[in-house]
Amino acid sequence: MALKAEQSERLGKLLAERAEKIAKRWAEIAAAPLKGRLTVAESGRQTAELQAQLQKALADGAADLRSAQTTELRAVLTELSRGRARQGFTASETATSIFALKAALYDVVDVEKGGESALRDYVAWSLFIDELGLFTFEAFARAREHIITEQTEQLLELSTPVVKLWDGVVAVPLVGTLDSARAQVVMERLLQALVDTGSPYAIIDITGVPAVDTQVAQHVLKTVMAARLMGAECIISGIRPQIAQTIVTLGIEFGDIATKATLADALRHAIRRGAAAARAANREA
Amino acid sequence: MERVPILKIGSVLLVSIQVDMQDQMALQLQEDLGQRIVDTGAKGVIIDITGLDIVDSFVGRTLSTIASISRVLDAETIVVGMRPAVAITLVELGLSLDGIRTSLNVERGLELLARNAEPETVDDLDFLDEPETTSP
Questions:
Q1: Minimal CA–CA distance to A30: which of A18, A52, A46?
Q2: Is residue B24 part of a domain?
Q3: Which residues belong to any copy of the STAS domain (chain B) (predicted)?
Q4: Which residues in chain B have their CB less than 8 angstroms from residue A188's CB?
């Protein structure tokens, strides 16, 4: 709901005239529920900045939060929400800081003695402040989502290294649950590494994979097929006894793909195959 | 219409596909290659698809057909240099390019051919010498 022009003006005037008192009260009330995780001074700095922007927006004639005059105010609110999200505060704690302005205004204006018009003003201002609070809520949620996506990407980055084990042998040690997105990344990285290093052998080590179901097996098989199409041989290693049991119970067929118990066995196998191929080529030449 | 060049290196024919393959081009290559194998008596064919960004089901099938034709003409086909993205797409499409041997690059393809090659000249065939040496 939009503020009427005179209500907006009166709130602006009030904020300007009683600035110091409101700022002090707001800072106190806002800092209370944060229980010392944010100092009164820090919280006060944030509320003071908000107050300044709010005052400026009202002076420019802002009637609601969608108007053009509140661009800077919105930016400050977004910045506050983002900061709080990163510091680990909850959405409620963030919004409460805004709602504290209501309590501060109530104390300063002394609505009870002001009669009907003061009460009407106060209700209108409250609605406006609610709008500010809701905006922080949304900004907070957006900031959180951003953090989560960022972390997911980082996790994806760090969990799929492709290492060169020997001349012509690369390995990818899989750690953690293999979902479709990760499987895709692993597949692309491994195939690219095959091209870059010109390695004819690749080892997929699943020691760090806690459970193998049909989906995970499907991903691994696809990777092996793709590597084969490119002319490289894949060896699967690091199959623990429980996982071997699961694989057999689920009826997963690895076909003619070489499987080894440990990475060492797989490496020995790859080196031996490589050496045999080299000997055969030399004999011909 | 553009044609894919076929180069002869020793007893191997090298086909390097540099542009995106149109269906007509693929069919033309299939025809030309058969002719060249007969003309040169090549024992191996290397098809380099490093330059191909897209391999659709038609091109995939044509490659399979080329491999089959070459085998009938006693030449082994090796497809080399498939890009990761192409390999992933083919697997997702369920095309496994049956009957085609693959290698990472031309060099390894040549090695693979050399390894599988049978003795080429009559002089290499020991058993042909035997009747002469044992004859009285």
A1: A46
A2: yes
A3: 2-113
A4: 84-85, 88
